[in-house]
Amino acid sequence: MRAHVLLAASAVSAAFALMGAAPALAGDVAFNIGATNNYVFRGLTQTDEKFAVQGGLDFATEGGFYAGAWASNVDFKDGTDAEIDLYGGYRTEAAGFAWDVGVIAYSYVGAPSGVSYNNYEVKVGASRAFGPATVGATLYYSPDSWGVENESLYAELTAAYTVSDKIAVSGAVGRQTFDPGSDYTTWNLGGTYALTDKLGLDLRYYDNNLKGYDDAFVVSLKAAF
User: Fold this and answer.
1) Domain of 60: which CATH number?
2) Strands 119-130 and 216-224, how do they pair?
3) Domains in the chain: how many in total?
4) Domain that holds residue 207
5) Is Signal tagged as a keyword (predicted)?
6) How far apart are the C-alpha atoms of 90 and 15, rounded to whole Å?
7) d(CA 154, CA 140)
8) What is this structure's pTM?
């Protein structure tokens, strides 16, 4: 776990240094906390279709740099208890697109002896707004996905549409590939309703084309401050 976290931190620090942004990092801090009936990641349940409590902390500078941490309980049926993610990167706008380049380190608490799920990914994404609609694409690359030293690439297309001040609908289609390993396609579709200016309710359907893995209808409640 330490190796992955240190590598992610080093990559983010290097990006700050290269772009000359390290000296003054004044910015905004945001917090979020939420609950869901099923934590689904890239079409697959991470909690054995059970309840999850999640929360995170985000820091963003006026210059576009950001960093954060996020955690959730998990259940892999092997004693693994929690997932802790650390991430950082840079957001900017160019050629009419919003760009996001970053690093994500995933670490897991309570994994059985001899098993390491810890890994990290590098991501590059771009999105563009067309009135109330936004479309985007993101690539995630890992040289040691799930800690077993096999490369992986996840490519995702997303779309969102703002219906009103309180309602938005969105969906995504993703393709997860492993070298070596089993590749699969996943998709989701849902909507978010703003209960207040800080509290949102999301209803979403997830599915994938892997044999033996069920689809899921997920209800999530999230507060952001």
Assistant:
1) 2.40.160.40
2) unpaired
3) 1
4) 2-22+29-224
5) yes
6) 8
7) 5
8) 0.87
Structure tokens at 162: 């703002």
Of 150, 158, 159, the C-alpha closest to 177 is 150
Tokens encoding 65: 């740099």
The DSSP result for the chain, as a single string, is -HHHHHHHHHHHHHHHHHTT-SS---EEEEEEEEEESS-EETTEESSTT--EEEEEEEEEETTSEEEEEEEEE---SSS--EEEEEEEEEEEEETTEEEEEEEEEEEEESPPTT----EEEEEEEEEEEETTEEEEEEEEEESSGGGSS-EEEEEEEEEEEE-SSSEEEEEEEEEEEEESS--EEEEEEEEEEESSSSEEEEEEEEEE--TT---EEEEEEEEE-
